[in-house]
Design a protein that fits this description.
single chain; about 250 residues; alpha/beta; 6-stranded mixed sheet; about 15% strand; globular; binds arginine; binds zinc ion; binds calcium ion; zinc; metal-binding
């Protein structure tokens, strides 16, 4: 694919306190990060270790707040909903349903639904392609969304949404989701085999699973490091996202 594909986004701000009713500037700051990260236009791309610089990919994906709503009406692409739910749990998906204190998904074949809310025990979570349309999209904790307002260090780099939208495009965790073992795979050829998740801000190189000398690609968006320590997708990951776009998410193609 050579053309950029733009994904229309609806942001559901589901708030229990005034603070959680995040401002437009914070929403815009998140969209800006997405449009950098998925185009390899992020200012920290230069920190990718030399050995992997050629692998860093422009995924040719951009994101824009929807301007037309589900019934063709003009929209800001932001839905604001006050809730009596103090904190949503990732299991249960209540945030995605009006009748459970959340906000109903917009048609998942035309919009990427992003819910921003008070979320229990997680920075975010995502639904992979192929799941039920009513719950399709990503959920992000309001303190891990965007780069301003309520965004809080070390998750104020907008990378939680980058990571979760990676999942929405079918990317797996880079360590293969097998705990710390070496048998799991992310089904991407050009990411090194890696034991478990990395956290914090590791020093390069950090090895596991016989992957010396370069070690883990912990600076990948699909690891668990802090926002400031992640700054790349690989070409293989971009291909996998492309396959999702050609397959289960093809309704987003022009
Ligand atoms: N699903 C992960 C969690 O809830 C998100 C990790 C995002 N990492 C980040 N640096 N923002 O913990
Ligand atoms: Zn994840
Ligand atoms: Ca592994």
């Amino acid at each position: 694919r050579e053309e950029v594909v733009t994904i229309p986004v609806v942001v559901h701000v589901v708030y229990n306190t005034d603070e959680q009713n995040i401002g437009q500037e914070q929403i815009d700051s998140q969209l800006k990060i997405l449009n950098e990260d998925f185009r390899r236009a992020n200012p920290d791309a230069g920190q990718v270790p030399e050995v992997w610089r050629d692998l860093a990919a422009d995924a040719l994906l951009e994101f824009a707040l929807a301007t037309t709503g589900p019934d063709g009406e003009p929209t800001s692409g932001v839905v604001r909903k006050e809730t009596s739910v103090a904190e949503f749990s990732p299991d249960g998906d209540a945030v995605k349903f009006n009748d459970r204190g959340g906000s109903n998904a917009w048609p998942a074949d035309r919009y990427l639904n992003v819910w921003v809310c008070p979320l229990k025990d997680a920075l975010g979570y995502a639904q992979f392609p192929g799941g039920p349309p009513e719950t399709d999209g990503v959920v992000i904790l309001y303190t891990a969304f965007g780069t301003t307002g309520t965004a809080t260090a070390p998750y104020n780099g907008g990378r939680t949404a980058t990571h979760e939208i990676g999942h929405w495009f079918n990317l797996r965790h880079i360590w293969g989701d097998d705990g710390t073992g070496c048998a799991g795979s992310d089904f991407v050829e050009d990411t090194p085999n890696q034991g478990g998740a990395n956290r914090g801000t590791p020093d390069f190189p950090k090895t596991s699973c016989d992957n010396a000398p370069n070690g883990d690609m912990f600076m990948n968006y699909m690891d668990y490091v802090e926002d400031a320590a992640m700054f790349m997708f690989t070409k293989g990951q971009a291909e996998r996202m492309d396959a999702a776009l050609a397959g289960p998410r093809s309704s987003f193609l022009p």
